[in-house]
Design goal:
- This protein has helices spanning 27-43, 56-60, 72-82, 94-97, 101-112, 134-137, 159-167, 171-178, 194-197, 278-299; strands at residues 2-5, 15-19, 46-53, 86-91, 115-120, 143-146, 151-152, 155-156, 183-189, 203-206, 215-221, 225-232, 244-249, 260-270.
- The strands form three sheets. A six-stranded parallel sheet has the order 1-4-3-2-5-6, sandwiched between helices. A six-stranded antiparallel β-barrel has the order 9-10-13-12-11-14. Strands 7-8 form a two-stranded antiparallel ribbon.
- The chain is of the alpha/beta class.
- 32% of the residues lie in helices and 27% in strands.
- 33% of the residues are buried.
- The chain has ten helices and 14 strands.
- The chain folds into two domains: 2-156, 3-Layer(aba) Sandwich (Rossmann fold); 182-299, Elongation Factor Tu (Ef-tu), domain 3.
Length: 300
């Protein structure tokens, strides 16, 4: 898959395109992507996705923006696995936000991406002050198609619904809506080695934004095995402002620093708690590890 960023030069080939944030790349997003890929093959076009970084709501009101389901790297990997041939990541900054809808169509869609076929939702809005709509996209020299909301098990699939399920600790429902297990990935950073001193060494991943989950979880880590993880602010010792992901692996005790880990969340054990001293914290971690091992004994 080809990934391009920033400003666009005049496109050399024509594409079938869909546009959106695609946070989580859930079943609804996959329906859009699969339709674009099928149309591209049928019409001998390049299948293409236009997405944004940061999320527009993070640009306009970072403190009120929804929790991210996927980092950009993970989102791109999921799109590549789906079979998308090209993704353009538009930098959503003040200049992009102020772009009139007509200019977005002319400069981005027509000149920059050479769209021949476009798939969007009926409620799609774009351009400065969200002035652009489905009607704006009509009669622009490319074919236009819409897709209704995707339902799964009788529920509308949306990033908001996924976030709500994960925030409630319902990982099974989150996975049903996503179509894949919920994961967080990131590079392991140096920590205070408190876990190691307590007998439970952890791989620490700093999160740039608060995720939709919090608490203690049973996890699997690609290529490194099974374990238990905490996503939280460490209220007992060394509190942090933005939640930290700390993973204790049962059968891997090497040096993780600098490794990129993909952590798959399987079941929530409990909420994060503040304990009265390190002995109580150590006992709680031991209970968590024991419960996680019992989970794996039951589920194979």
């Amino acid at each position: 898959m080809v990934v391009t960023h920033g400003s666009l030069q005049r496109a050399r080939g024509r594409c079938a395109l869909t546009i959106g944030n695609f946070d989580g790349v859930h079943r609804g997003h996959r329906a859009l992507i699969d339709r674009v890929i099928a149309k591209a093959r049928e019409a001998k076009l390049t299948s293409c996705v236009l997405t944004f970084e940061p999320h527009p709501r993070e640009f306009f009101a970072a403190d009120a923006a929804p929790a991210r389901l996927t980092r950009l790297r993970d989102k791109l990997e999921l799109m590549a696995l789906a079979g998308v041939e090209r993704v353009h990541v538009a930098r959503f900054d003040a200049k992009f936000a102020a772009m009139p809808a007509e200019r977005f169509v002319a400069d981005v869609l027509v000149r920059g991406l050479a769209v021949q076929w476009l798939l969007v939702g009926r409620d799609f809005r774009f351009g400065a002050r969200r002035a652009g709509s489905f009607a704006t996209l009509q009669d622009q020299g490319f074919a236009l198609e819409t897709m209704p909301d995707v339902q799964f098990d009788g529920k509308r699939v949306s990033s908001s619904a996924v976030r709500a399920a994960l925030a409630a600790g319902d990982l099974a429902e989150g996975e049903r809506l996503l179509g894949h297990p919920y994961t967080i990935s990131g590079r392991v950073a140096h920590g205070a080695k408190l876990g190691k001193n307590l007998g439970f060494p952890t791989a620490n991943i700093v999160l740039r934004r608060p995720p939709p989950i919090a608490g203690i979880f049973v996890v699997e880590v690609d290529n490194f095995g099974r374990g238990v993880a905490s996503v939280g602010r460490r209220p007992t010792v060394n509190p942090v402002a933005i939640p930290l992901l700390e993973v204790h692996l049962f059968d891997h005790h090497g040096d993780f620093y600098g490794e990129h880990l993909r952590v798959r969340f399987l079941q929530k054990l409990r909420d994060e708690e503040k304990y009265d001293g390190l002995p109580a914290l150590q006992a709680a971690i031991a209970r968590d590890a024991r419960q996680a091992k019992e989970y794996f004994l039951k589920h194979g």
